[in-house]
Amino acid sequence: MEEQRKVPVIAIRELKKTYPGADGEVKALDGVTLEVREGEVYGIVGMSGAGKSTLIRCINRLDTPTAGDILYRGHSVLTMGNKQLLATRRKMGMIFQQFNLFMQRTVGRNVRYPLELAGVSNEQAEERVAELLKIVDLEDKINAYPAQLSGGQKQRVAIARALASNPDVLLCDEATSALDPMTTQSILSLLQDINMRLGITIVIITHEMAVIRQICTRVAILDDGKVAEEGPVNEVFVHTKSQAGKRLFGILPESPDEDPGIPALRIVFDGASREKPIIANLIKQHGVLVNILSANMKHIGGKTYGQLLIETPKDEEEKQLVTRYLTEQGLTVKEVNAQ
Amino acid sequence: MSMDKMLPLLWQGLVDTLYMTIPATFFAYLIGMPLGILLVVTRKDHIMPAPRFNTVVGALTNFLRSIPFIILLALLFPVTRAIMGRATGTKAIIFPLIISAFPYVARMIENSLLEVDRGIIEAAQSMGSSNAEVIFKVMLPEALPSLLNGGAICMVTILGYTAMASAAGGGGLGAIAITKGINLRREDVMYAASILLVILVQIITVSGTLTTNRLDHRQR
C-alpha cells in the first residue's frame, strides 16, 4: 500500500511535441516534466498556445508526443499495445470544453455508452446509468437529447458519461471555458465533490486562474511549451516567481502596448510599493487633477500589482512633477504617445 | 394511344424502372459504403491514418465518377456480358448502374461522415472505443440523418441514370418516354412517363427528407 502510494498516478517525463509548421517546426511542448499524485486535483494553467491542450491529450494518447514519456501508474502509455491502451483509457475519463456528447443518443444512452463497450448487462447498465445521473443531478433528463440541454447540463452529462467506466483519473480539457460564471461554479463544485467522495484524481487544463484557485491542490504554469512554475496552489499564488505566472495572475498587463490613443502615462505597480493611496496623495498634496484612463490592478499578499494609465498633464511642469512624485514612490512611469 | 393500352405500358415501365433502381442502389451502397468509410477514416488526421492509400483510392473514385454514365455503359459492354450473361436489356443494365453509382455513393457517405464532429469521435476514443466501435457505434449512428438524406439523393441519381437504359435496350419509364414518346412522336406517352418519373422522384425525396427530420436530434 505504502509502495503504491509513492507511484504517481500520472508521471510526465521530458515530454516534447513538435508540429511541422509553415516556417519550420512548431514546438507545442518543449520538455514538460510533472507528476500527478493519487487523489489530488492538479491544475495546468497557461495562456492559449502554451501547449496545455496538447499536453492533456497526450496523457491518454489522443495525441502522440514526439519525445519523452507518460506513465500511468508506472506503465508507459506511449509504448503499451492497443488493447492495453483502450483499457487504460477506460481508467481515465475525459471531459471537454465543447462537451462532445453523442447528439443522436439520449442522455441516458450517452451515459450508457461506456457500459456498452464494457459489455455490461442491460439490467446492470440501467441501474448504473440511474446512479450516475443521480450524482450529476440530472435524473429527470434521462430521455432528453443533448440539444435540449443547457451548457451546464451538457457538461454534467459528459461528467456522468466519463465516470461510467469507473475511472480513477478524470481529465478536464477546458471543461468550464464555454460556461457562464454561475454554471462554472456548479461544475467546479461537482468536480470537487467527485474528487472527495469518489477519490478520483483530477487533472484540469484551464486558462482561468479562478478555476485553479477554487479547486486545485497543486498547479503547474505552462508557458511556451515548458513548465514555468509548479507547486501547491497557495504557494504559487503568493510567491509567484515566473513571468508567465505573473501575467496569468494579472500582475503584468496582458498587452503592455495597449494604446490609449492620447498622450498618457503608464504607471506600473510591480509589488514593490506598499498599499497606500498614492494617487489620492498626488491629487491632494500637489493639486494635480488626474484623469484615469484605465486600471488593471490586483492586491496579492498585501502588495499591489498591475498598471494604471492616466492622461498626461497638458502642462509640461505638471507632467515633470507627477513623474517625479510617482518615481519617488517606487513606481515605474512610462510615457505613451509623447507629444 | 388509348388508356387501356397506355396503362399496362406505363405500369411495365414503372416496374422496370424500380427493378433497375432498387437493386442498383442496394449494390452501389454495398460497395460504396465501406469505400466511403475508408475514405474518411484513412485521412491523415482521422482514426486510421493512411494518407497514401487515401489519395490513391480517392483519385480512383474521382476517376470512375467522372466518366459519364452513357459512356461507361458502352465501355463496360464486355464486362457486363461476362457478369450478367448479356450486355443489353433491363437486367443487364443493373451492372453498369452499380459501377457508375458506387463512387458517387462513396463520396456521399464520405461527406455525411465528415459532418460528425471530431470532438465527438475523440470523446468516443477517450472512453476506450476501438476503431470499429468508433465507426459503427458512433460515426454511423451520429451521421444517420445525413446518410439517409444522401441515400435519397443517390437513389434519385440512379433513377435518372435508368432513363438512359434505352441506349442499351433496357426498359423503364425513361425508355418508354424516349422510344415511344419521342421517336414515335406519341406526346401523350412521353408526358405520362415523364410525369410518373417526376412523381417517383418526389416520393423518394420527400420521404427521405421526412425520415431525416424525424431522426435528427441535433436541433431543438
Summary tags:
heterodimer; A: 339 residues; alpha/beta; Alpha-Beta Plaits; six-stranded mixed sheet; 36% helix; elongated; B: 220 residues; mainly alpha; MetI-like fold
Descriptive report:
The complex is a heterodimer of chains A (339) and B (220). By secondary structure, chain A is an alpha/beta fold. Chain A folds into two domains: 247 residues, 3-Layer(aba) Sandwich (Rossmann fold); 73 residues, ACT domain (Alpha-Beta Plaits, 2-Layer Sandwich). In chain A, strand 9 and strand 10 form a beta hairpin. In chain A, helix 4 crosses helix 5 and helix 6 packs parallel to helix 7. By secondary structure, chain B is an all-alpha fold. Chain B has a single domain, classed as MetI-like (MetI-like fold). Chain B is built from nine helices and no strands. In chain B, helix 1 packs across helix 5 and helix 2 crosses helix 5. Chain B is elongated. At the A-B interface, helix 3, strand 6, helix 4 and helix 6 of A face helix 6 and helix 7 of B.
CATH class division of the largest domain in chain A = Alpha Beta
Main sheet: strands, sense, barrel of chain B: none
The backbone outline of chain B, from C-alpha atoms, is: elongated
Mean pLDDT of chain B: 93
Q: Domains counted in the coordinates of chain A: how many? A: 2
The CATH topology name of the largest domain in chain A reads Rossmann fold
Q: Give the strand order, joined by hyphens, for the main sheet of chain A.
A: 6-7-8-3-9-10
- CATH homologous superfamily classification of chain B: MetI-like
The rounded distance between the terminal residues' Cα atoms of chain A is 71 Å
How large a portion of the residues of chain B is in β-strands, by DSSP E?
A: under 5%
Q: Please count the helical segments of chain A.
A: 12
CATH level-3 fold name of chain B: MetI-like fold
Count the domains of chain B. 1
CATH superfamily of the largest domain in chain A: P-loop containing nucleotide triphosphate hydrolases
Radius of gyration of chain B: 20 Å
Helical residue percent of chain B? over 70%
What structural class do helix, strand and pairing data of chain A support? alpha/beta
CATH-derived architecture of chain B: Orthogonal Bundle
Largest interface, chains and sizes: A-B, 32 and 25 residues
Main beta sheet strand tally, sense and closure of chain A: 6 strands, mixed
